[in-house]
Amino acid sequence: MLRYLLSRLITFVPTFIGVTLISFAFIRVLPGDPIIVMAGERGLTQERYEELVQRFGFDQPLWQQFWDYLTGVVQGDLGNSFVTNRPVWDEFFTLFPATLELSLCAIIFAMVLGIPAGVIAAVYRGKFFDRALMSTALVGYSMPIFWWALLLIIVFSGWLGWTPVSGRIGLLYYFDDVTGFMLIDSLLSGQDGAFGSAVQHLILPSIVLGTIPLAVIARQTRSAMLEVLSEDYIRTARAKGLSSGRVNGLHALRNAMIPVITVIGLSVGTLMAGAILTETIFSWPGIGKWMVDSIFRRDYPVVQGGLLLIALIVMLVNLTVDVLYGLINPKIRKR
Amino acid sequence: MKFRHLIATTGMAAAFAATTAGAQTLVYCSEGSPEGFDPALYTSGTTFDASSHTVYNQLVEFETGTTNVVPGLAESYEASEDGLSYTFTLRSDVQFHANDSFTPSRPLNADDVIFTFERQMDEENPFHTYAGSWEYFNAMGMGELIESIEKVDDMTVRFNLTRPEAPFIANLAMDFASIMSKEYADAMMEAGTPEMINQAPIGTGPFTFQDYQTDAVIRYAANENYWEEGLPKVENLVFAITPDASVRLQRLQAGECHVMPYPNPADVESIRSNGDLELLEQEGLNVGYLAFNTTQEPFDNPDVRRAVNLAIDRDAIIDVVFQGTGRVAKNPIPPTMWSYNDAVEDYPHDPEQARQLLEEAGVSDLSMKVWAMPVQRPYNPNARRMAELIQEDLSEVGISVEIVSYEWGEYLERSSAEDRDGAVLLGWTGDNGDPDNFLSVLLGCDAVGGANRAQWCHEPFNELVAEAKTLTDQDERAALYEEAQVIFKEQAPWVTIAHSTVFMPVRAEVQDYIVHPLGGHIFDQVSLSQ
Question: Can you tell me where the transmembrane regions are (chain B) (predicted)?
């Protein structure tokens, strides 16, 4: 297992360099000079322009800029934001827990509903429940996030008043960040009602962000289950007289989980993309909104550093998924 | 840190109402995150709301709701006869705020004022490069304007200028001129954390900074030692950062906040009809325009420019693009600004006369480019749509229009070029309420190749505007600006399109909120009815 992990980690190196280069190039390929964007309608004099070019290091040749950036990255220095002048690293880790908390809740929501729904649909294949579920999943999969979020807000926060409109916790709760995870920090704060408020604030954004993964997981679970249910060993299990709950739950589901876990792993990328919209709508202080703002401001260090860190996270999640395969299915580990 | 004790139950609106009844907490659903808290480093209104309008004061300030300059931290000031020096007498016993790492040992004095400006103009100042660059100070040309700043005595400061410049006083009321504590800056420099003055600001303003949770919430408490008697009126102020306009409105309706800026134009009617809300409005200090390139044929001929002015139906633009949230502009400065010349006669929408003018000018089969900005701005909510309407209007008088657009940075850069092809949609929001900030910045000969998108250098106009800048008497200046507006209209380097309206939806319990024409959101005079 250790050797497997090590060999996987080594393959990270070229990917990492590639991502560094792409993220560096990506923001520079976009038209729009950050200095001109910063000055806006007001504009600025040529002298002032040249001063700023020098300050940001744009007067260096590109390869030099990339080299400086790469050597910084290797030493853990992603540079400072052009706009706030704070280290990109600090900004990322201030905001990342909010995104992680939301993504985890969204994926848990998607799994808790999606897997049982898929199993039931497979077991009752072709029946009403199956058809209803699969067409709902199709709708969920094609749902425009922005519209869906506003609809939920209008119904549940506006008309019914069940959930707060946006934010991470009621404004009147005020405590220091310990872990950056609101659910944990609100418990640690010991303030009455803080945890409840944090949970309430998580409901709508988790549903919105979890909708597409939910649909994908439900469909994937169904088709994987259908495949497994037609295998010989399932027929054997049935012939042995095992209860259908035992057959479906233990023998079939466990074997059907491999493709489902793959899908969950892959949906991390979807979650990151979805987080950008979800965070903007729900005023969620995470990295999605931070990245979008930075792209509009042409804040090079933030965009390239943020992309790099997000890519790193996706890579780590994929590695974890691969390790999980091994745990669930020993055949893969031995390969 | 009083906030920590203001804990209520869950159930959002209920908790909110219960708590605000005890200690008045005003919640403002702001549109974005501040870039920092040292306002001189930045140029965005979002940052100014969170810093210069809450934590800081300036020597002179804009009276809330107007562009009049009134005393701030300076009790009074005096200009020398030749307009080359301004002497300020500071208010006594103005206390700076305190925080966990700093307690001021003395009240405001001349050293603080000198530090505020020296860090922006003097490269030797240890704070000159501590966190960024001084964009507004530079953009307003303050570096070349201020020759020196003298400390006459502890409570008196004199600014010596390199040339007489009337808008100087209005510049000092701007956000970049917010007075900082030298004592705090020195203490932070000594502690090796100079960036703290940008992260945990200390000022003299109505609210003391408590805490900022990145991209989420900014908290302030009332400054109990505030120098202006009776202000601020609420005990706590919270900025709940809410970037999406529809969500801001939902939060306002749900009682999660009391005041929100920038509603969607489409929501304005429903806000008006909602009994829990009140819709405040004021004309913004801005102008949206279409600038010809007056150096290129046939637009170097004023008759052709007049013809285009006559051909465009701006009422339709206000209806369609602004959805009624604006008014047709006839002058390059907005009507709330002093020296606005209401006697100027606007071009009517008259395609017939337009056609005739073009014919007389010998122009036929004219085709031109109209540039449409790719972004939404306060003075133009949808440039693309606006360009399409213009295209339609102009085709009626035989001018064919090609609409072009570029990425915003490119747009700004290319549209400044003197040999640019086509007319450009753009606009301006005033910085300091001074007419010079529109007329010479956007239309002066010095600005050709820069902010003067019409590339229009017209001597009679330029002389008036340049002269007005050197006078200190406001009435004399106004007379010159009024005359300049007549020349502008007659020469028509732009089609003046619109001044947009600024809307501020507030909850009905909010008392005395005043919409500020300069665009800032100011809360010291606001209270909540029980």
Answer: none
**pLDDT single digits (tens) B283-306:** 889 999 999 999 999 999 999 999
- The C-alpha atoms of residue B15 and residue B274 are separated, in whole angstroms, by 22
Q: Is B55 on the interface with A (CB under 8 A)?
A: no
Question: Which residue in B123, B460, B72 sits closest to B228, CA to CA?
Answer: B72
Tell me the count of A-B CB pairs closer than 8 A: 158
What is the distance of C-alpha B165 from the center of its chain? 20
* DSSP annotation string for A272-316: HHHHHHHHHHTT--SHHHHHHHHHHHT-HHHHHHHHHHHHHHHHH
Q: How far is B450 from chain A (nearest CA, A)?
A: 7
Architecture of the structural domain at B25-241+509-528: Alpha-Beta Complex (3.90)
Domain with CATH 3.90.76.10 in chain B: 25-241+509-528
B450 lies within 8 A of chain A by CB: yes
Strongest mean pLDDT among A224-228, A305-309, B474-478, B495-499: B495-499
- Contact at 8 Å (CB) between A124 and A130? yes
Whether chain A has a CB inside 8 Å of the CB on B409: the answer is: yes
From the candidate CATH numbers 3.90.1150.10, 3.80.10.10, 3.90.1300.10, 3.10.105.10, the one assigned to the domain spanning B286-501: 3.10.105.10
Can you list the alpha helix ranges (DSSP code H) found in B341-382?
A: 351-360
User: Average of pLDDT values for A96-124?
Assistant: 91
Identify all chain B residues contacting A171, using CB atoms and an 8 Å cutoff. 16, 27, 217, 238, 240, 256
Confidence band (pLDDT; 50, 70, 90) for B277? very high
Chain A residue numbers with beta carbons less than 8 Å from the beta carbon of B256 are 164-167, 171
A174 to chain B: which residues are within 8 Å by CB? Answer: 3-4, 6, 211, 219
Rounded to whole angstroms, what are the CA distances from B2 to B9, B25, B235, B428? 17, 11, 10, 42
Query: Is A36 within 8 Å of B219 when comparing Cβ atoms?
Result: no
Name every residue whose Cβ is closer than 8 Å to that of residue A138 and which is 6 or more positions away in sequence: A215
The CATH 3.10.105.10 domain(s) of chain B lie at 286-501
Residue B112 has pLDDT above 90, yes or no: yes
Residue B371 has pLDDT above 70, yes or no: yes
Domains of chain A by start residue, with CATH: 2-74 (no CATH), 94-296 (1.10.3720.10)
Q: Give the mean pLDDT of B466-478.
A: 90
Instruction: Tell me the average pLDDT across A25-29.
Output: 84
pLDDT digits 0-9 by tens, A112-123: 999 999 988 988
pLDDT-derived band at B360 (thresholds 50, 70, 90) equals very high
Chain B hits for A91, Cβ within 8 Å: 214
Question: Of the candidates A211, A213, A201, A256, which has an alpha carbon nearest to the alpha carbon of residue A234?
Answer: A256
B361 close contact with A: CB closer than 8 A: no
Residue A265 has pLDDT above 70, yes or no: yes
Quick one: what percent of chain A has pLDDT higher than 70? Answer: 98
